[in-house]
Amino acid sequence: MRLIIENDPQQVARWAADYIIQAIHRKAATSEAPFVLGLPTGSTPLATYRELVRRYQLGEVSFANVITFNMDEYVGLPEEHPESYHSFMWNNLFSHVDIKREHVHILNGNAVDLEAECAAYEEAIVAAGGIDLFMGGIGEDGHIAFNEPFSSMSSRTRCKTLNADTIRVNSRFFEGDIRQVPKMALTVGVATVCDAREVMILASGPKKARAVQMGVEGAYSHVWTITALQTHPKGILVCDEAACDELKVSTYRYFKDIEKNNL
Ligand code: GLP
User: Of all atoms in ligand 1, which is nearest to the CA of residue 146?
Assistant: First the structure.
């Protein structure tokens, strides 16, 4: 696993956006096939999306040959609801770049048959050639996508009941009212994320420090689904200083040292 430690959330965003842009260019240099990008929602990736839009406007990247798959979506929330992950993605990224509408995939949390929707999503990922790079955030309890503690490490896209902590944390997007937060979501599984050829998880702020500590120093466990990254051949955790607050000094120094000559 690589652990990249940047000073603040802005530098995390710049590092992540650079990495995505380079990956898109690298694939385009050798193949006509679209670049397949997995994407998260949440506050953490917002700065990365702003940076990607800025770089697109500067002509440094195009999304015309990029296919996206989002990690998750609430169940039962209308697509046009301002807090749906559909709204989030169009408002913060897709509407501002040259991505083709038909290249965007977001789970439909209002599908009549949710199980069929999830199975079709997995099939669509395979049909697209698999995900080249899955970017993700991390919950305070170490979840990736909506794979809450005790999710199977071999889980696939499915319907999940959200736990009380996640509902409480996410209530900030619903006027602080937990009653308004959907209680279920469709989410890619831990194995869906780990099938990607590269996985890059972003974490910033002190609230993520415990999850980062468990992800980097903790034992592989379904209690902290972020630990799945430890088994990925190309897993990267990009953190700011505050998110590293709980790491051992030796761990912190190790990664600072080993990454100092890497791009
Ligand atoms: C939700 C999302 C996750 C996200 C997490 C953290 O639970 N399903 O994908 O990583 O929130 O969000 P934030 O970046 O806002 O802290």
Answer: 8
Q: Is the CB of 216 under 6 A from ligand 1?
A: no
Q: What is the pTM assigned to this prediction?
A: 0.96
Q: Determine contact, residues 231/1, Cβ cutoff 8 Å.
A: no
Q: How far is the CA of 260 from the centre of ligand 1 (A)?
A: 29
- State the residue for tokens 């999503």: 121
Of ligand 1's listed atoms, the one at least distance from the Cα of 162 is 7
Which DSSP helix (H) or strand (E) runs through 6? strand 2-6
Category of 138 on φ-ψ map: left (φ > 0), alpha (ψ -120 to 50) or beta: beta
Per-residue pLDDT tens digits for 216-258: 999 999 999 999 999 999 999 999 999 999 999 999 999 999 9
What number of CA atoms fall less than 13 Å from residue 43's CA on the CB side? Answer: 13
Question: Which tokens sit at 56?
Answer: 């697109």
List CB contacts of 188: < 8 A, sequence separation 6 or more: 38, 69, 71, 72, 121, 145, 156, 157
Strands 72-74, 184-187: parallel, antiparallel or unpaired by DSSP?
Answer: antiparallel
Residues classed as catalytic = 72, 141, 143, 148
Is residue 12 within 8 A of residue 47, CB to CB? The reply is: yes
Quote the CA–CA distance of 15 and 232 in Å, as a whole number.
20
